[in-house]
Structures
1.
Amino acid sequence: MKFLRRFLIRLSNFATRRSADQRLREEIAEHLALQIEENLSAGMAPAEARRQARLKLGAPEAIREDHRAEQSLPFVENLFQDLRFAVRMLLRSPGFSLIAIATIALGVGATTAIYSVIDATLLHSLPYPNPSELVRIEANLPGVGAHDVGLSIPELRDLQNSGIFQYASAYFFGSANLTGSSQPARIALKPVTPNYFAMLGVDAELGRTFDPHDATPGFNLEVVISDGLWKRAFAADPHILGKNLRLDNDVYHIVGVMPANFRDQGQNSEERSTEVWAAAGFFGDPAPPPMRSTRLPASTIARLQPGLSPEAAQGHLDALVASLKKQYPADYPSQGAWTIHLTPLAETLVGNVRQSLILLFGAVGLVLLISCVNVANLLLARASARGREMAVRQALGAQRPRLIRQLLTESVLLFVLGGITGFAVLFCARKFLLQFVPESLPRLNDISISWGVLAFAIVVSVAAGTIFGLAPAWLASRLNLTETLRQEGRGSNGSRQRSRLRHVLVIGELALSLVLMIAAGLLLRSFWDLFKVQLGFNPSRIMAIETWLPIPNDPKTDIYRTATQESVMLREVLRRNRTLPGVEETAVGDRAALPLGHGQNDLNMFPLIREAEDVESSQPPLIDTSIVSPEYFHLLGMTLLRGRLFADQDLEATPSIAIINQAAARMYWPGKDGKGGDPLGKRIRLDRVQPNWTTIVGVIADARTESLADAGIPQVYLDIYQRPAKDLAFFLRGQVDPSAISAQVRTQIQAVDAELPVFRAETLDDVLSSSLSVRRFSMEMVALFAATALLLAALGIYGTISFLVNEQSREIAIRLALGAQRSDILTMVLRQGLTLAGAGVGLIGALIVSHLMAGLLFGVSPYDLSTFAGVTAVLTAVAIAASYVPALRAMRLDPITTLHSE
Amino acid sequence: MKEKPDVLQGTLALTVLKTLDVLGPQHGYGIARRIEQISGDLLAVNQGTLYPLLLKLEHEGSIASEWGASENNRRARFYRLTATGRKQLREETHDWEQTAAIIARFFNVKAEDLV
């Protein structure tokens, strides 16, 4: 309190420049007068009385100094003085200042840009109360290599009753047809257990959310809608509550509207913009009966009990899993090795971009380092030029710490100016820059240039200014007074150390560039390899357009319940599509059949039960399954290796058949030599409940329809006329007009069923390129950073060698005058450049980095010799070129002019 | 020559407050004079150092000052104790007495007392 009051008064005195000097003078005068009087009355002579009084008072200047220091804030006052001086110094050499500020602006600006992306994606917590309590729950069967197999209703109840969680909530992410308005629309719908909103800890803006204790077995026909849908479809009707909404032909009542700023959690932007939430118990129609072994393909998230850490919760959970396995041995066969794993929700939502972002941050950090090193180099060069100034200041009594403080103030000012410039450029260009960020990046919309980002930029600048200003300041202030002053600034004692430091800095810079360039080279090669990869299918001139068949809650009301019912509609739409202008071929499949165009959520994984191999109790492997029409394979250009494709005579009534790919054949029917037995005629089941066997009739060549990076993912294809699908994608090959085709197909589909929504028309080429977007983004960014680093390093080398030549010009001139050959001079200078070979240490750094980023590479080894050699060669060439120019200048030096000028 | 005791230097603020407490408002010279008298020249500080200290105490709110007329009718700055200063003086006196008592006990202790 006392301290604060004193500080505030001093601060205000400082700010208003109020001085107590006059008051002190008067007080001292009065003091002396009184003392003298007393001395006189004690019988002293007048002169002696004055002398004694002054002696007793002490040195008035020292008192005034202390008094002044107490009156104001001397530290801040000095700082301001230093700042004023620093500004004057920067203005005096505008060229230097501009280059330095621009270099720092580049480094800090780029770092801040990446930081703002990381801030939004990795650091921002979820927009719900106590987000650290939220966890994602995944059940795995590591014994059969199955991941995230889902939980059954009894298991979910076990979790809910375990005492570990406040709420454990399951949900599907899907969509539904919203009908009744002018145009049928597909909207993102999330059937959730009724405790979902209670688990997230958010409430409705209007009305209510679901009762967490609701025990309706199936759908309870209540929905909560998003603010966006409320405004779009209901014109923000204030009396919306209780009104009806028709979803997949079922009628729901609206019970609540979420707040405008509510965003659902989810793994992709589609899921995060869910518009309707429906409460369901998941154990009545249309869900299967609640058996322990019937796992729902749902996601589960939960809120931990307050104060329970995820690690501790995982411990409790492991115990629960162990006891459940003991209690129900038939449901948890030991070879499956059933486990349940918790992950903090915030981590799971970022997923695979984490690695890319960390790589980018590392890369941009290197650029920042390099730009700082460059500026430190410039500061060192300037220190040489200011040797005389420093010597004079020291001769006049300036202390070394005081000089260092002065120089540090200058460098920090320079860095902060650079940082602010970088931030300002970033702020002005943010809209432009955001275009380059791939849309698939999670929380893209949350990226903002906020105060936190500004604070980051300033902290980084100040830290960099202090760190990289310290060494130059240290060396600049360390000099031999007499020598420097005598030499009249012709180079000073400290210059040897300074040039050694400059060499070290340039070597460091080169080494860092080497690391960056190798990382960029490896990424570039991976990307190129991915781009050039043999797809195994032909995506050109193919358009996919999606529709969605309603799934009413009562299966009896479903007009597309059986394959036969559905096939009538499908065949008619396909026939109509073939008549559209430019269309050559058409096919239909489910969403899983859409190559590369779907996220993990849309994968259709089914247990693969092989006849005579997988006994009933064992845990069958899960296999990726697509449902397609017979024309699909020809349309996508996929080759049949053995057997036959689907044909028109395969119908619901005829024996059920399947086609597998080569990878599935290799993995599940390896034969005796392991190279592939004969799967043709073998029978499988993709469902534990249905008794019907499906016969494999064909094997097709592997295609990268699931992942560009992986050709060998086992696949099963089923015939859509035997096994109906609800999430449909119509494929068209031909010379179609992408802008018109969507409307044309909509007309054709709605001519068959007016209630069907038609959405998302994409060419497969677009799908392909957007599946590479995150990779492309990080590759382009790292390449950009590497180019920047190379440029900065080249400038650094050029600057250092030029500076050396300048310093040695006298020596060179004397050598020339004494008869040295010009070529000798050239070699002499270039030899100094040779020490830069120390940058080879960068190779070690590059090895470490490339090892760390192995997961981001494709088709190229992290220790790829040609990349390492190529990059080293390029860097060497640049280094030689950058030192050659000053070396040439040294060679052409005219001895007479040089020696005269000194 | 023996060094002046540092502890006493550190308590200069306390002596200033006590002086003002006992004598009422005083100018700088008066305070210096009193301290000199009471401490019997033990505390012969450079009297000038008093002024920065007075300013510090004023900033801390323990004392206040205003212009007034000195004994010989000249303008002089008079310092007086504020309520805060009085409270501070009370507390510090108490602390100081406690410390002094403890130290005194240590000085008085004899070997046989510790057995």
2.
Amino acid sequence: MKIYLKCIVLGISALFLSCNNANNEKEIDDETENVSEETSLNENFSDMSIYNLPSKWTTQDGNEIKLGDLQGKVLVMVMIYTSCQAACPRLVADMRNIEKQIPNNKKADVRYVFVSIDPNTDTPERLKTFAKENKMEDDKWIFLRGTVDDTREFAAVLAVNYKQISPMDFSHSNIISVFNQKGELFHQQEGLGIDNKETVKAIESLATENKKK
Amino acid sequence: MVKVGKGEYIPLYGRDSSKIKVASFLLDTVPVTKTDFLKFISNNPKWQKKNIKGIFADKHYLKDWKNKLYSGEANQPVTNISWFAAKAYCECQDKRLPTLDEWEYAAMADKTKADARKKKDYNQFILDWYERPKKSSQIVGSTFKNYWGVYDLHGLVWEWTADFNSVLISSESRNGGKNNNLFCSAAAVGATDLMNYAAFMRYAFRSSLKGNYNINNLGFRCAKDLKKK
């Protein structure tokens, strides 16, 4: 019986390479409840950290990153698309406004991340141009493009809803999210052009002072 | 899996209320069962109840399971499953979750017609089911086989779709308070007939979900693109 089961399992493993790795076979073999071994699969990101997302993203400079690469910074994130005429320019303005209000000695600890909900249109080149146009060219401004599926997944994490309503346009939730240095959601601001005070306060409370001055 | 043939339909909340084209695709004939899911988590420990990250599933994940031991029947649909887990399961089979449009399109069929939405007994069946208290004992394949050869789209459990988070009933209605009550009743009144009412229930339900939610009567099935010849 056990051999029979093993055959099935191995058969499955061979078929579904994408989600099975060497560790799994071991797990099946002895059926032990070895927690420490299993948790090591999940890396050491905390329970609610967005760094757990396995997705890869391309920046406006063409670099490939995982969200985990941003670990250690306060992240202010928003989902936009560059051909957007209505809400996005205001969201971009909101992000700029927020950045302005962060005290100089804390600025270095914060990254502002724009994730495109229109990855088919928003190539890295296009994101780069968009960054230039908006004078968001130094390191703290990050523009990301992923696959359609990974973008959908990221939106699910942020609880941002969006839908393509015509070839050119999307309707979407207007949400700015603040994550702490461990990648855990700390604060969300919903709506356009609203008072940023709470968001700024949230970022200030998280960001550490730059000792160099 | 069976092939669901291409076609078009007007969804409840469409792109400018125009017709949506749905390309042919493959769809699981029944929802994913508890046995199916057990196999998956045995191979993929990070999706086991004791290892799951909170960002991917809240504490209700596989609520009635004792880690790798489910309660109930092997052939019951797996529920209390988050969108992330459902998505991971399908990807593991080299499949994907159906899109909202694909799901709604396949679910328009009754036993004999691809689009039965204007038939009274079709709508009555769905609404009767929505009214019934949850029957957890039902096994997959126990409802009718539809025009495409797909079972259980209505009458068993609600199902995740890939883009469940594409539903925007009002532009931003989650602030609570003033809008919420208004739009609920307003939309129901605005629904022109029973057909829209049933669809409205599904859209409203989807819009209330978050990706890491786990719900008693919410399961899933997988879809797949047809191979290009």
